[in-house]
Specification:
- The structure is a single chain.
- The chain is α/β, with parallel strands linked by helices.
- 23% of the residues lie in helices and 28% in strands.
- The chain is built from nine helices and 17 strands.
- The strands form three sheets. It has a six-stranded antiparallel sheet. Strands 12, 13, 14, 15, 16 and 17 form a six-stranded mixed sheet that branches. It has a five-stranded parallel sheet with strand order 9-8-7-10-11, sandwiched between helices.
- It binds FE2/S2 (inorganic) cluster.
- FE2/S2 (inorganic) cluster (FES) binds next to loops.
């Protein structure tokens, strides 16, 4: 029996709206495809998938739902959600992330989370896991860490991202992670372990205290089982027992913990300060091409001193708002009660792209101003530069 949270979150109108995309989006050349096509005709004005979804969301083919089958508390403010995706969830590689959409108080919210398990390694057949840290004031992270229950459904997008292992059969790696930045690294380590390739990996992981280390037991077990995996847990507030030194990333610390770092493929994931420090050091050392970083937030250009707020007109919604200097159009729209489509919120996925009708917008990543009507604008990383009107 479904609870209120487990019932299909789709209404009939939403189903109708997306039917056109659902039908025709899948090839009908196979016998199964032709049967589904015929069933779609009888199911009109909806698609067969919409009726199946009402019985079991995991049977839907026009949207990929996943059921929360387990919840694992990792630390006081981080939780792993073990998910069983339904039909249509694509293959992924260790280290990639996935857009996750949840409905909170009737509004849909999408965030991206690294998949924290390697393919085939989550409990349950075909399952995946995401591990979420509660961000202070974060509505979605708060819901996923504190509110969601087993049996609830979330919507999944397509796994994506370039933060994946190199092709070498037994890669020499250096992992630099902090906080929840350990999530893609854990999937990579599982993958390497599963294929017997966890032979030469140095892992520096930062957390405020030992109690804040996500996957602490898992990582320790991997280190115990694989002598070639050298884990260094570095506490920034209180060193864990048995560890004499702690501190944030620094070239000295790096040399002390991993003297041959120049000879390794390095992967960094964590807060902005760690990523910026690592990028600066690798660039200054002429090794920038050996470092890959995975960000949770976009890198923004400093705003010119004379930039003031602006005014944004969301044409289709009939809403006009005053915007703060540097406030993204996505945030401005959400503050006005709108719910624009979005994914990563950092300029990667293009889900939030809309058309500029008139006026000027500033790309917050590089400060570039666009004033060409018809230009496509990513509203999560764009702000009104004076007045603007966008198709939203
Ligand atoms: S939400 Fe992904 S690019 Fe804007």
């Amino acid at each position: 029996m479904h609870t209120a949270e487990t019932a299909s979150p789709f209404g009939l109108q939403a189903a109708r709206d997306s039917r056109a995309d659902a039908i025709g989006a899948r090839p009908r050349s196979t016998l199964r495809g032709r049967l589904v096509g015929a069933a779609d005709l009888f199911a009109w004005p909806l698609g067969l998938s919409h009726y199946l979804e009402l019985v079991n969301p995991l049977w839907s083919t026009h949207t990929t739902w996943a059921r929360v089958v387990d919840l694992i508390d990792e630390t006081a403010d981080a939780r792993t959600l073990v998910l069983r995706p339904g039909r249509g969830f694509g293959a992924y590689r260790a280290g990639q992330y996935v857009p996750v959409t949840v409905t909170i108080d009737g509004r849909r919210h999408t965030r991206t989370y690294s998949i924290s398990t390697a393919p085939g390694r989550a409990p349950g057949r075909g399952g995946i896991a995401i591990t979420v840290k509660h961000v202070a004031g974060g509505r979605v992270s708060g819901h996923l860490v504190r509110g969601i229950r087993r049996g609830a459904y979330v919507e999944l997008g397509t796994p994506q991202g370039e933060f994946v292992l190199p092709d070498a059969p037994r890669p020499r790696l250096l992992l630099l992670t902090a906080g929840s930045g350990v999530t893609p690294a854990r999937a990579m380590l599982q993958e390497l372990s599963a294929r017997g390739a966890l032979a030469d990996v140095v892992h520096l992981h930062w957390a405020p205290r030992a109690a804040d280390v996500i996957f602490a037991r898992d990582l320790a077990s991997l280190a115990a089982a694989h002598p070639g995996y050298r884990l260094h847990v570095l506490a920034t507030c209180e060193p864990p027992s048995g560890v004499a030194t702690a501190g944030h990333f620094s070239p000295n610390l790096l040399d002390a913990r991993c003297a041959d770092w120049r000879a390794r493929d390095a992967y960094a994931c964590g807060p902005r300060a760690l990523l910026e420090a690592a990028e600066a050091h690798w660039t200054a050392s002429g090794c920038a091409q050996r470092l890959r970083v995975e960000r949770f937030q976009p890198v923004l250009a400093p705003l010119p001193a004379d930039v003031a707020g602006g005014r944004a007109c969301f044409r289709r919604s009939g809403v006009t708002v005053e915007t703060g200097a540097g406030q993204s159009l996505l945030l401005a729209a959400e503050a006005a009660g709108l719910a624009p489509a979005h994914g990563c919120r950092m300029g990667i996925c293009h889900t939030c792209t809309v058309t500029l009708r008139s006026g000027r917008v500033r790309d917050l990543r590089d400060g570039r101003v666009t004033d060409e009507p018809g230009a496509r604008v990513q509203i999560c990383v764009s702000a009104a530069a004076g007045e603007c009107e966008v198709e939203l």
